[in-house]
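Entry 0007
Protein: Band 7 domain-containing protein
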Amino acid sequence: MPEIPVNTELLTPILIVVLVVVVAVRLFRILREYERGVIFFLGRFQKVKGPGLIIVIPLIQQMVRVDLRTVVMDVPSQDVISRDNVSVRVNAVIYFRVIDAQKAIINVENYLQATSQLAQTTLRSVLGQHELDEMLANREMLNTDIQEILDSRTDGWGIKVSNVEIKHVDLNESMVRAIARQAEAERSRRAKVIHASGEMEASEKLVEAANRLAEEPNAIMLRYLQTLTEIAAEKSSTILFPMPTSMMEGLFKTVERHEQHKDKHDQ
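Output (structure tokens):
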């Protein structure tokens, strides 16, 4: 089989061009505005570069990209036992971002996984120190406590935790019924207190009204007549209307004088 002649003079420039292209591709890197490149020189940290066009010398320098945008991480549901021994399942969401690319790469192996695991343990630890009523009523306070703890513990990783939000507090069916009974009892207690308060205010007004009526004897007569008018409007068959003896004194005196006059006339 005849050999195919190879033009070494043409092959050499082609190899040189390919080599230059490969080196150029490995040499020049482009980092976006929200990216930074952590540069290692022969395995040792050198500097943080970016954004824009940067130069990375192949085989001598290595680059690790770091995203500086805010990360929204969903914390899986955690089984929490509250301080009053109630078992609940709680999940949350945390918002954080890398503010120091050097620490995020050098001080921790995987800052995303580390932050996720720390958020889960912190969520269980903080909520376990509070009662169920506090979990349901004071979420803003709990969110702030968890955020401050996470922020302080991730500071060495170059991470800033900006916000934590507890999304759901799931209760079992028996606990839901117990809370419903408690709420019903609380509403009943408030109704009794309101009723008692109303009775107290009414008694005070009645005492005040009695004192005012006692100042003018004719006022009680007007009140009786008004009550009689109200009762008569109901068209009841029988009306029992009490009359004070003071109102009958004049009538009794008139009858007595009439009887005396009659006896004198008979004599």
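Curator remark: The mean pLDDT is 82. The chain is about 55% helix and 25% strand.
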